[in-house]
Design goal:
12 helices, 8 strands, single chain, alpha/beta, 8-stranded mixed β-sheet
Length: 270
Amino acid sequence: MTTTMRRHYADGPFGQIHFQAASSGRPLVLLHQAVMHSDQFSNVFGPLADRGLRPIAIDMPGFGMSDPTDGPPTIADLAEAVAPVLDALGVDRAVVGGHHTGSLVSTEFALRHPDRVDAVVLGGAIVMPEAQRLALRDEFAEREKNFAALPGAQHMVELALTREHFAAGTIGPERISDYVVQAMMARGAYWYGHHAAFSYDHAAAIAALARPALILSNTGDMIHDAALEAHRMRPDFAFAAIDGGGIDIVDQEPVRWADAIADYVATLAD
């Protein structure tokens, strides 16, 4: 099924927020991983709509075509993009979910605005010891702060090779090229997204989360162990794990990924 996604802008606290949305179905907000944007979910819009959901995919501040924050954003800053989008669409409540960095943002939005959230989809929790998390933040920040344009667009080549490595032959060159384009569109500094993610105490946020939730992972994800730890923390949350894949599970298994969310949403009250 071809799903028509219309592109929109809403005014937010940091400027314009770009998003795309289907016109019907139960609202499902989708928040992307760093350093991508809302087109990360382009291959699941159709499967989600086929199951009666209304995808609403947001470019978080500083990513894609959304205006950036004035300086390095926090996860709380990125979460400020969600309510203006719901308001622009006249949506009171939605299921709010995301992938990797997006799962942190969905958690924070649910903590700040529980009255706007039917449930949360945590597509890649980051539950790990604080020292490990902050070490990863510093490692990513040091590497990503050095990311800069090189002659012959060699920086884009290097990014494409990195994404090919993570995809391990499961993603074709056209989509890999699209990943590079998505990363290059970011309006904030390249290092902002991962710095915000690893600065955020997702374990504490998950412990405080008072809305229903699905922890969604895949066994080949580099942070799958963190999702398992999140489930040990919150056995009251639903849990689903897709076999294999990697950080690009949304593209590697789009139907299974969409079905896992749709099956969970079907258990929620209207």
